[in-house]
Amino acid sequence: xxxPDATREEVEAAVRKARCHEFIRRLPEGYDxxxxxxxxxxxxxxxxxxxxxxxxxxxxxxxxxxxxxASVDADNESAIQQAIGELxxxxxxxxIAHRLNTIRNADRIFVIDGGRIVQGxxxxxxxxxxxxxxxxxxxxxxxxSWLGR
Length: 149
What we know:
Elements: H1 8-17, H2 21-25, H3 44-58, E1 62-66, H4 74-88, E2 92-96, E3 109-113, E4 116-121, H5 123-127, H6 132-146
Parallel strand pairs: 1-2
Antiparallel strand pairs: 3-4
Helix pairs in contact: 1-3, 3-4
């Protein structure tokens, strides 16, 4: 779907970069398995990684990711983070996220509150000043330790 004219080798290269190859190999018919409407038989994290593979294959200069790790477990979140690293090389990536680990390494982070940008900078810059971003990072850190992560 990312590029219908792609060769099998190009598809497999994109899938490997998106960290999908291993779970695809385990499917009943591998790359030829029908996974249902919208990937119904895949987990949320597997669907996200397939979407990233499509983006890698399409090679668009601008990519928008909206809550890409919102409904995935820690293992899938890690694989998705690695896949995003492959996806964003040389591209403009716009990421909308509440899970702040998703954006920690961004070149520029903007905090929107009430429809307005209220803070902007790198993770380090935003952590160095009191504000919404630092409050959210600290709150997520406390909840992660409380949950035993």
